[in-house]
Amino acid sequence: MDMGSEMSEHRRTAGHPRGAAADAAVHRAAVMTETDRLVSAVAGADLATPVPSCPGWTLVDLIRHTGSVQRMFSGLLAALVQERPRSRDTELDLPTSDDGYPAWLAASSRVASGVFADTDPDAPMWVWGADPHARFWIRRMLFETLVHRVDAELALGVRPEIDAALAADGVDEFLVNLPFAASFAPRTAELRGQDTAIRFRCLDRTGDWLIRLRPDGFGLDPHPADGQDTRPADATVQASAADLLLFLYGRLDLTADAVETSGDAALLNHWVANSMF
User: Fold this and answer.
1) How sure is the predictor about 18, in pLDDT bands with cuts at 50, 70 and 90?
2) Minimal CA–CA distance to 11: which of 227, 253, 232, 268?
3) What 3-state class would DSSP assign to 134?
4) Does some domain include residue 11?
5) What's this model's pTM, rounded to 2 decimal places?
6) CATH number of the CATH domain containing 30
7) Mind spelling out the 3-state secondary structure of 180-209?
8) In CATH, what number is assigned to the domain containing residue 249?
9) In terms of domains, do 196 and 153 share one?
10) What is the separation, in whole angstroms, between the first and last Cα of the chain?
């Protein structure tokens, strides 16, 4: 079974997937793969290279952040925390010089791999998003790593490649969890409207999400049970799964050739201005 068929149900169920164990296995493996790709991308590179998609960061900052997140999330998983941690203190074991960071990042993924092996992905635990199980953190770690792998490649002039099924899953992960991100992405509180809707659609995969902005907040509309999506939208963004993922993370903007838009331009600009984390 390929990655796309394993994840198809996951994307359709908006944060409460069937086949979650299979998805968690895919996510665990992909964390390792994406970390390896990031390490390979920066091997031999000048780690002082600026990362334009992360203003103010260099490659070494990007690597330090990615590995630190992996180690922090691994700590949460190992403890199966049941309430929001009061501290983010984590044993990082940072290298003594910048040239040690690629190997340190590879070691970070091995720390994660060891924790994955000892953790039931269906175990209940505290999360900041929609799915209160250990699998949330594995999936979140994956897309944090994948997007920063892309950032490194862009900084080095390499055209990023993202598996379409994995990208569509990343679109789902972003849109399902964004309504819960206000504690660290306060501008999402501005994503309100008078029952206005934005459709996000993959052009190369099965994938269609309708975000509704209401006076009291925003969130995903449930997908029609019969699979026939005739819900109206005030604006639409569509692209390949990979480009849609990069758009949602601000690595492509509304003017990019790869991104097709229609409908209420002011609504789309409002989304872009307030949806980043």
Assistant:
1) very low
2) 227
3) helix
4) yes
5) 0.92
6) 1.20.120
7) HCCCCCHHHHHCCCCCEEEEEEECCCCCEE
8) 3.30.1050.10
9) no
10) 33
